[in-house]
């Protein structure tokens, strides 16, 4: 049986978790494949595309190539077109097609934890991760509130305008994070607060955490942040960013070879990936 060849590209790329996660996914699917790490500088991308990338069965893309890869490939799917970003490419029958799996990773992480996108949805932060999640919320017809720091208020207002202009009929607003109050059906932390090594930090006050029915924290190191632990202690449903990281990799495999995975196997892979990260 021939060995299928895959890789992740980026620059720099020394600490990526992609090989650990994708090799396990290939094992679970019983697919004979190699998965390499390729550090490619921006100025070498076009040359390495012809020399290496076009000969792979597929590959993942991280910073700084998610936009620059687009002119080099043959086509991109509608969601990648909307986001203007590609993080997965499949090479099938001579056609290189690009996808973005981050949004679906977010949705599948919520689904696996039985967390619906409904009611009052609040996203903390307004950066790239927040933007991805925000679009998925409004595409489901839900109103959305960004809660941000004072210094990010203008950025948040611009993002609100962008989303409402792109998704007609969407309702998006923003407030200062210190003014956040009231019952929240789904709280999404799209800030790095709580990430290793500052694991004692939390992005919102306990009084707000106590009002959340469900919580998603994009931070994946540690596996359970203070926000997650306190939410679970309150009886809320809560899941961390490692689940999204793994599920977006699962979606890449769906694009590459149609693999289907057991939810329990993915849950174990999330725990094992967190342990691997801690050991590093």
Topology:
Elements: E1 4-10, H1 18-28, E2 33-39, H2 45-51, E3 58-61, E4 75-76, H3 78-83, E5 88-92, E6 95-99, H4 102-112, E7 121-124, H5 128-139, E8 144-148, H6 153-166, E9 172-176, E10 186-189, H7 206-209, E11 214-217, H8 226-233, E12 237-240, H9 241-257, H10 263-279
Parallel strand pairs: 1-2, 1-3, 4-6, 7-8, 7-10, 8-9, 10-11, 11-12
Antiparallel strand pairs: 3-5, 5-6
Helix pairs in contact: 1-9, 1-10, 4-9, 9-10
Structure report:
Helix 1 crosses helix 9, helix 4 packs across helix 9 and helix 9 crosses helix 10. Strands 2-1-3-5-6-4 form a 6-stranded mixed β-sheet. Strands 9-8-7-10-11-12 form a 6-stranded parallel β-sheet, with helices on both faces. The chain is built from 10 helices and 12 strands. The chain has 2 domains: 97 residues, Leucine Dehydrogenase, chain A, domain 1 (Rossmann fold); 138 residues, Rossmann fold. With 280 residues, the chain is an alpha/beta fold. Helix content is 38%, strand content 20%. The mean pLDDT is 96.
For this entry, give a set of tags.
280 residues, alpha/beta, 6-stranded parallel beta sheet, 20% strand, single chain, Rossmann fold
Over all CA atoms, what is the radius of gyration?
A: 19 Å
Helix content: 25-40%
Indicate the low-confidence ranges by residue numbers.
none
CATH architecture of the largest domain: 3-Layer(aba) Sandwich
The CATH homologous superfamily of the largest domain is named NAD(P)-binding Rossmann-like Domain
Order of strands across the main sheet: 2-1-3-5-6-4
Per CATH, the class of the largest domain reads Alpha Beta
Q: Give me the number of helical elements.
A: 10
What proportion of the residues form beta strands (DSSP E)?
15-25%
Overall, the morphology is: globular
Largest sheet, in brief, is: 6 strands, mixed
β-strand number: 12
Mean model confidence by pLDDT: 96
Structural class: alpha/beta
- Domain tally: 2
């Amino acid at each position: 049986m021939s060995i299928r060849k895959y890789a992740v590209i980026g620059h720099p790329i020394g600490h990526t978790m992609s090989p650990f996660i994708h090799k396990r996914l290939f094992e679970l699917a019983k697919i004979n494949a190699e998965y390499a790490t390729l550090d490619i500088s921006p100025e070498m991308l076009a040359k390495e595309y012809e020399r290496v990338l076009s000969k792979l069965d597929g590959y993942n893309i991280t910073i700084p190539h998610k936009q620059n890869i687009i002119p080099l490939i043959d086509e991109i799917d509608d969601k990648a077109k909307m986001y203007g970003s590609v993080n997965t490419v499949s090479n099938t029958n001579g056609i290189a097609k690009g996808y973005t799996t981050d949004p679906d990773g977010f949705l599948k992480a919520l689904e696996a934890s039985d967390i619906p996108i409904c009611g009052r949805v609040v996203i903390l932060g307004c950066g790239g991760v927040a933007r991805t999640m925000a679009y998925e919320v409004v595409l489901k017809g839900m109103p959305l509130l960004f809660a941000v720091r004072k210094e990010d208020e203008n950025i948040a207002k611009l993002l609100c305008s962008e989303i409402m202009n792109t998704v007609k009929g969407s309702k998006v607003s923003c407030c200062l994070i210190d003014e956040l109050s009231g019952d929240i059906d789904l709280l999404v932390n799209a800030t790095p607060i709580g990430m290793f090594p500052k694991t004692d930090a939390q992005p919102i006050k306990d009084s707000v955490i106590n009002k959340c029915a469900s919580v998603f924290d994009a931070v994946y190191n540690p596996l359970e942040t203070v926000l997650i632990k306190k939410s679970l202690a309150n009886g809320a449903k809560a899941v961390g960013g490692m689940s999204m990281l793994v599920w977006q990799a699962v979606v890449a495999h769906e694009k590459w070879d149609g693999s289907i995975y057991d939810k329990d196997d993915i849950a174990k892979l999330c725990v094992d990936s967190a342990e691997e990260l801690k050991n590093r």
